[in-house]
């Protein structure tokens, strides 16, 4: 599958899962996975899911604005993806802008998240 | 050198060079390098520098807000960096927010840019 198509399919699945049930994101991370969330670093599937589940909101909705992807090594075994979008938390009506970067590693027909960097964009 | 220190040093050098003389960025790219600039893809040092030099402004100043970095492979031979910041173009006084992701490859004591994804963030 083409890089951009993989990135878009992954991104849709990731945010659908995040917005429905964050614990289900565990299937996308492994022990070497790294997450830097608003500057705080976490490593490993358990720590990452614990961090994501602990975020202090009940409801969240991600709206994707852009998805850009490139192969991140010459063997087409990994893909770097940068997403920009908007985040609606709980009953707020003003979305917050965010940026998220993933580095995805191919394993058979699927991909897992090696790198994950999340930032809110403040004007 | 530590991942975060490399990322900050690279980022400072990149934007200082960009804002002073974009053609000097040629030293940071190679033929396999990829740039996706506002969704437009380019590959190779010559095409990338041509794209950057052709951007329609005379003066530009990047202000860095955040720099997040992680090793992007298990051998510490590459680093993924996501930068958020503000961009001041020509004589405008309202900065535009931007996001840029680099994947840097180690070569001896220095790093070159394998992946480069740039996006303006629109509210």
Automatic annotation (TrEMBL), chains A, B:
Domain (NTF2): give its ranges: 6-120
Going by the entry's taxonomy, the superkingdom of the source organism is recorded as Eukaryota
Compartments reported by the entry: Cytoplasm; Nucleus
Biological process (GO) annotations held by this record are:
mRNA transport; protein import into nucleus
Q: Does the keyword Zinc apply?
A: no
User: GO cellular component terms?
Assistant: cytoplasm; nuclear envelope
The protein's UniProt keywords, in alphabetical order, are: Cytoplasm, Nucleus, Protein transport, Transport
| SUPFAM superfamilies with a match to the protein in the record | NTF2-like
Q: What does this protein do?
A: Has a role in nuclear-cytoplasmic transport of proteins and mRNAs.
Put simply, this protein is called Nuclear transport factor 2
Species of origin reads: Umbelopsis vinacea
């Amino acid at each position: 599958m083409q890089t951009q198509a993989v990135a878009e399919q992954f991104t849709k699945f990731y945010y659908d899962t995040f917005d429905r049930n964050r614990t289900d994101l565990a299937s996308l991370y492994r022990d070497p996975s790294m997450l830097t969330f608003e500057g705080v670093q976490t490593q490993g599937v358990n720590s990452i899911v614990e961090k994501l589940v602990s975020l202090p909101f009940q409801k969240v909705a991600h709206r994707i604005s852009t998805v850009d992807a490139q192969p991140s090594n010459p063997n087409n075994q990994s893909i770097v993806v940068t997403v920009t979008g908007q985040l609606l938390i709980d009953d707020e009506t003003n979305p917050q802008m965010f940026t998220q970067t993933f580095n995805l590693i191919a394993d058979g027909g699927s991909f897992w998240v090696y790198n994950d960097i999340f930032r809110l964009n403040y004007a």
